[in-house]
Design a protein that fits this description.
The complex is a heterodimer of chains A (about 110) and B (about 110). Chain A is built from no helices and 11 strands. By secondary structure, chain A is an all-beta fold. Chain B is globular. Classes of the chains: A mainly beta (about 110), B mainly beta (about 110).
Amino acid sequence: SQQGEEDPQALSIQEGENATMNCSYKTSINNLQWYRQNSGRGLVHLILIRSNEREKHSGRLRVTLDTSKKSSSLLITASRAADTASYFCATDSYTGNQFYFGTGTSLTVIP
Amino acid sequence: DTGVSQNPRHKITKRGQNVTFRCDPISEHNRLYWYRQTLGQGPEFLTYFQNEAQLEKSRLLSDRFSAERPKGSFSTLEIQRTEQGDSAMYLCASRRQGGNYGYTFGSGTRLTVV
């Protein structure tokens, strides 16, 4: 399966701490994306990293990609209660036309 | 840019009934996708359109499922003879053509089959 797998499945931290989530995948990719989903809502695109990139930043988000290990990480710095959500990585299909999602990491930020 | 709109937000139906969901994508996006998500899982790909052409279908899309995008704008997903296992959140997403764009998702339609 090309589906990404996130680790850990659940993470609980105090507000202000950093949160790190990891994603592993099995086949070669062109792009990897991270999404956030609040309970009962659709997914929100956070960041896209291309296979020739190693690190990307967006605000308090930092994404790394190691294609040799077929893994990516999402770091959220100085977490806030509003960051409480599920986070998914998505890897593209061999055609590049669609993305496959993992089962997600459920993040709880305690105020 | 008004985002991706899905209707209805919730649908409760009796087993065996047919249901239809609608998705209005962002107008500039020529690609439209349907995903299904069950509790505690990530979204699973169902099908994808480029303009009005349905280019890929997952094996998850059984004969009871059909999707259309008649004029390359809005799309409908119909489930015939619903089963309890069809209960899920049905998500629509759109994006621009090209490999460097992410999806814009709608809020989804929550289907409950009783």
